[in-house]
C-alpha cells in the first residue's frame, strides 16, 4: 500500500503573505497612532485659539442646568459670551441646548435667563432649544440664522470642545470661529484638561467616521 502523502509545500505567494502580515499590522498601527495623535494635537491647538473678529452672532453651547441655574461649566461659558458681547464682537447672543427628561427649563432658556440677569437686553438674545445633541443644535441654529440672514458666528464652549464644535458648525453651513472660555472646572487642572483632550479626540474621530452624534456625558463636571 502507498505510504502517507507528504505535506504540501507552501507556495511562494503564501510565504510572501505570511512575511508581509507583520508589516501590514505595524503599518496599520502607525497610521492609527498618527491619526489619533494628529487629532489630539489639533484639539489642543484650536483650544488655545481665541478669535474675536466681529460676527453676526455669539453662539453659546449648552451644558447642564439645574432648575434654571446653569452649572459651573455652563456659567463659565455664559460669562465668556457676556464679555464678548460687551466688547462688541456681535450684536446678539444665541443660547442653545435642549432639556433632559423631567427638566422644567432647557439649557437655552437657562442660559438666556442668566444673561438677562447679568445685563444683556432681551432683544439681543435668541434661545434655540432644539436638538438633542451638539450637531442637532447646530442644525437648529443654522435654520434660525438662515431665516434672519445671519451667517457668521463665534462659538463659545470649553477649549477642548472648540475643534469638534467648529467642524459641526462648518458642516451645517455656518461661518464659524471659536473663542473658548478659559475658566471653569474643565480647565482647572492639567489632569482634567488631559482627560477632556482625550475625550474630544475620540469624539471627533467618531464624528468623522459616522457623522453621527458624538456627545458623551460626563457626570463628574456637569
Automatic annotation (TrEMBL):
Domain DUF218 intervals = 56-201
What Pfam families does this protein map onto?
A: DUF218
Tell me where the transmembrane regions lie. Answer: 20-44
Ordered alphabetically, the record's keywords are: Membrane, Transmembrane, Transmembrane helix
Query: Which superkingdom heads the taxonomic lineage of this protein's source?
Result: Bacteria
Checking CDD domains in the record gives: YdcF-like
The record's annotation in Gene3D superfamilies points to:
HUPs
Q: Which InterPro entries match?
A: Cell_Envelope_Assoc, DUF218, Rossmann-like_a/b/a_fold
Phosphoprotein among the record's keywords? no
| This protein's name | YdcF family protein
Amino acid at each position: 500500500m502507498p505510504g502517507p502523502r507528504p505535506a504540501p509545500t507552501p507556495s511562494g505567494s503564501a510565504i510572501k503573505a505570511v512575511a508581509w502580515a507583520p508589516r501590514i499590522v505595524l503599518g496599520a498601527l502607525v497610521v492609527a497612532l498618527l491619526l489619533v495623535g494628529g487629532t489630539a494635537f489639533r484639539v489642543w491647538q484650536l483650544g488655545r485659539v481665541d478669535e474675536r473678529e466681529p460676527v453676526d452672532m455669539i453662539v453659546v453651547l449648552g451644558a447642564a442646568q439645574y432648575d434654571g441655574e446653569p452649572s459651573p461649566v455652563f456659567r463659565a461659558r455664559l460669562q465668556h459670551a457676556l464679555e464678548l458681547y460687551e466688547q462688541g464682537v456681535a450684536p446678539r447672543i444665541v443660547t442653545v441646548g435642549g432639556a433632559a427628561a423631567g427638566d422644567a427649563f432647557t439649557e437655552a432658556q437657562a442660559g438666556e435667563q442668566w444673561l438677562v440677569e447679568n445685563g444683556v437686553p432681551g432683544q439681543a438674545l435668541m434661545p434655540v432649544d432644539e436638538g438633542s445633541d451638539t450637531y442637532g443644535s447646530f442644525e437648529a441654529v443654522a435654520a434660525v440664522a438662515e431665516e434672519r440672514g445671519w451667517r457668521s458666528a463665534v462659538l463659545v464652549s470649553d477649549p477642548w470642545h472648540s475643534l469638534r464644535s467648529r467642524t459641526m458648525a462648518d458642516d451645517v453651513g455656518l461661518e464659524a470661529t471659536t473663542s473658548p472660555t478659559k475658566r471653569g472646572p474643565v480647565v482647572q487642572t492639567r489632569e482634567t484638561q488631559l482627560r477632556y483632550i482625550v475625550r474630544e479626540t475620540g469624539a471627533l474621530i467618531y464624528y468623522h467616521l459616522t457623522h453621527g452624534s458624538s456627545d458623551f456625558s460626563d457626570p463628574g463636571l456637569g
